Every structure is written in structure tokens, then in C-alpha cells.
Amino acid sequence: MRADALLFHDDFRIAPYWWDAAPPETSRVALPSSVDLVIVGSGYCGLSAAAEAARQGQSVAVLDAAEIGAGGSTRSGGMVSSGQKLALTDAIRGVSAERLGRLMSESSASFDYLKHLIASESLDADLQITGRFFGAFTPGHFERLRQQGELLREKTGVTVHVVTRAEQRAVVGSDYYYGGILVDEYGGLHTAKYHRALRELARRCGASLHSHAAVERIERTGERFAVHTARGKIDAKQVLVATNGYTGNLLPFFSRRVLPVASYQIATEPLPPGLMDVLNPGRRMISDSKRNLFYTRPSPDGTRMLFGSRPSFREVGEREAARILHKKMVQLWPALRDVRITHAWKGYVAMTGDKLAHIGQRDGVFYALGCNGNGVALMSYLGQRIARTLLHLDAAPGAFGEGSFPLSPGGMARNLSVPVGAVLYQLDDCWNGRVRGALS
User: Fold this and answer.
1) pTM for the complete prediction?
2) pLDDT in the model for residue 180
3) Gap between the Cα atoms of 425 and 254, Å rounded
């Protein structure tokens, strides 16, 4: 094991790299006694919904159990896209061709919504459309990615380039993959700057934001709700749950349908001059076809490499995860072997039984949940969409509001489903690794 002094930078922190520029916020302003809408969760979804509802003249209070912006939204990789999660996973199994077309169309609309929102409201988010490369872990995966790229092109209209292994060094600067596909229109943003801009927007529209206000009970009182929090009670006409991977056990219907899965990332120290030009000359977002995939990107200023993966079938501490992720990163880019780590962090992604996000209403409580690791654009869009739905401004909630909301993977055996699933994914990757070894 590499000595910690050589692996970790002197300023190493167990915190998202993003928080250096835009840390989470403590907002202990007094809770209102009564509002039109209480939103539980201050992520992209909750803030987008708050801005939309307040813009429509509603009184809105956004509640978070921790600091505003301390949850999953500012802990992601900040990659933005449209429809790739549907095309590149088995989420489309059992989905009719007609509904798939509408799901893909709404996924594409979510990306358009994000870009329009950032531009029209002049949000400081460091949005950069540099493209995204999907690397093939095996030759068989290359053919599968090629076919999925055709589906993406057909359903969402994006520009997809097939990149052979002989051509890939111009994109990824590595021989790790067996080629892949490159989508021009995808990109990334600064997760915490975008979140800060969204909360400023919500406030400008008239919403109030309240940190350290964990919701302890939601009680129906006739046509209204009593929302009991750690800081007091709020009377509300309507309630929206937008907690995603941080849903907890407050409402059993939701907690049994979203499974929180930890995702880990590291950030390197600033790279030596010229090295980023070799490893990632186009400053693109990169992920791959493994079950336990690698996902990596440059920091928005182009100086550091950010790298994410699941380090183990079990949850581990961030420092241990950083050691494992550094080894994985070096598999992709051996030139980063002596580059030190400055940040390590984890966040929780909400996985659903059908790998689709869901919006709707249960017992009078509205919800928008289940980003499945694709939440930056989609949850921003669905927040606005569910706000318009609960205000009866849209005739229907759209494709993500259709069908049943199935139990999460593992159903009631939640404590076992993540490690068991991780082991199965790891076995699948190991088998494909043997295929790679036989070909090398």
C-alpha cells in the first residue's frame, strides 16, 4: 500500500471538491407558521420546484435536515446529458415503444430545460458542453455501445461518433478501453455553484429556505397538512417530498421505493502543465460500460482530474475509498500514479426498482424521486414539472408520472440488497476482465 504521505496532499479533506467554491449554507431563519407549499429536500429538484411554485404566486418553504446544499446534488460528478441513462441501461425492459419514445423525449427536454434556465436566469454554474465519451470495457461492449448510440441518435437527435480503439487516444489518452462512443452535446457543470445559483433564484422568486429543519412527521389535518420539524410546526396546503437518496424512513411508501446507494469520488491536486492535454485533450466527461463503472472528468477550470467509482461491495470510509479509487484511476491513466489526492467524498444516489425516476402523488403528498445517478438535468426538470402538476398548470405529469412506482431493489431486505447487488456487479466485471485478459 502506498504511504499516505505520498498519496494524500497536505491539505487533504473529506469533503466534495465543489464545496471549496460554494459551500453548503446554514439558514436558520424562523419557520413560517403557514404556507401554500412545504418542500422537503433542498436539492436541485426541491429548489427548482420552489422557484416555479413561488414564481406562480405560491408561498413556499423549503426544508432540509442538514445544511442547504449538503446532500446529493452537490456531491455528484456534475455530468449533464439527455436520455443516455435510458439507452445505456436495461431500464427500457418492459417499457412500450410508445412510452420509451416519450421518456426519451422528456429526458431530452430536461437537458434543454437546464440549459435554458441557466442562460435565461444568468446562473453561475460553469456549464460546459464539451462532449461525453462512453468507453467499452470489452470488444463485446463496444458493439453494444455502438447499437445504443444509434438509439440515442434516433430518439434524442444528439450527434454520436463511433470511436474505435485505434482512434480513442485522441479522446481519452488511454489504451484501457476497446473504443466507445462520443456524444457531442453532453457536458458538465459545477455542482455547488449551480446549487448556490438555484437557491438564490428560489429566494428571488419568493421562497424561504430553512436548514437544520428535519421533518419528523407529516400529518393530514382535513384538507391541509401539519408538517412537524425539529424546529417547529408548519401548516401547509400542499407537501412535496424531493429527498431522493436521502429519503430515510419518514414515509414508508417512499423509503421502500428508493434505495440509497453510496457513490464515491476523489479529486487530484492540480496536474503538471500539459498533462491534461494528453489525458483528456477535449476536456470531456468520461464513463464506461462496466457494471461498477468508472466516471471521470476534469474540474471546470481544467486543472484537476475528478474520478468516481464504487470502491467495494460494502460501504467504506472516504479515506479508505480514496486509496482504492486512486488505484482504479491509475488503471485508466498510469501517468497519474504520483499525483496526490486533495479531496474524497461520497453521496447517496436514489435507485428505483425499474431504474426510472417517478413523480406523482400518494395520500395527498406529492413526490419527485429516483434519479438513478442521472439527476442534474432530470431532477431540475422534474422539480419544475411536479410544481406545475400540483398547481394544476399542466394537464398531465408526463411520462415519468405514468405507471406504478415499484419497490426498490431488494424490497424489504434493504440492508442486503446493496452489498449483494455490488457483489454481483463485481463478479460480472471480473468475468469481463478475464475476457480482456485473454485478448491482451
Assistant:
1) 0.93
2) 98
3) 25
